[in-house]
Amino acid sequence: MAQAAQATEDGAPGLARAATPLSGTRPSSARALLLVVLGEFVWPTREPAWSSTLLSALAELDVEPNAARKALHRTAESGITEPGRVGRRVHWSITAKGARIMSSGHERTYNWDARRTSWDGTWLLLSVSVPETQRKLRHHLQNRLTWAGMGSPVPGQWITTHWERADEIAQIVRDLGLSEQAHSFVGTLGPLGSESGIVEAAWDLDALADDYRSFVETYAGTHPHTDAECFRARVLMVQDWRRFPYLDPDLPRRFLPAGWPGYEAVRLFRDRHGAWVSRAAAHWEHLDAQE
């Protein structure tokens, strides 16, 4: 893979590798890569990982040592990991909070093809207002509703075909202290407007399709040969892939253009991950054995 500038803890200027689907606008940070490493190699074992092993792993992903150490401590500060000691050596364990996050992320990342494909025409609509002055709150609301698969056709209104997520959406609103200024509705479209018009206004499917095609182009042409190369490829691919559950509203097929590239991307992700998983795990064990 081509080399560029090294990754820093805050995500700029980007990874020391060829551009990946979304890296032009959202470069991978040291902490994002650490979370992938933890989710792929540490959380499944339910065992702690040595600091030195994690630092070595991040170094192989072109993360600078200072950025890697900051990522370790900031991940702990967020409650995902906690440190422990054996003599002078430090290790990191996944906390109960971290395990819940890892489990949720794993479900969204790897069970993509188990999603509901039928739809009965029922929508979930959320109406919620946040003052312009509360920009941080608006940002949190937007991020969490987008992660839940909602789109906003007009300011203050959010919609999704996943009406079964009504309780999840309500909890998001409550968590942010907005329940007094929000209303949700479940039902079908009335005599005005069109479903296709709602989808077009709420989501940019053209941009999403471009991201899927870029993902396919990148990883269809990635062919690692050694265990170390498989480790690197697996982490970078998972990091790029795990953004799609955030970007993709998981719409029924009727709203997707013909030849939707998301299906090809799903198949490629599963194929490549399956091909690389054993050798990547072998390299992780090699790194751990060096400590």
Automatic annotation (TrEMBL):
Lineage: Bacteria, Bacillati, Actinomycetota, Actinomycetes, Micromonosporales
Region (Disordered): 1-25
Domain Transcriptional repressor PaaX-like N-terminal: 30-98
Domain of life: Bacteria
Residues in Transcriptional repressor PaaX-like C-terminal domain copies: 203-285
PANTHER family named among the record's database cross-references: PHENYLACETIC ACID REGULATOR-RELATED TRANSCRIPTIONAL REPRESSOR (PTHR30319), TRANSCRIPTIONAL REPRESSOR PAAX (PTHR30319:SF1)
Name the record gives this protein: PaaX family transcriptional regulator
Domain Transcriptional repressor PaaX-like central Cas2-like per the UniProt entry, residue ranges: 117-191
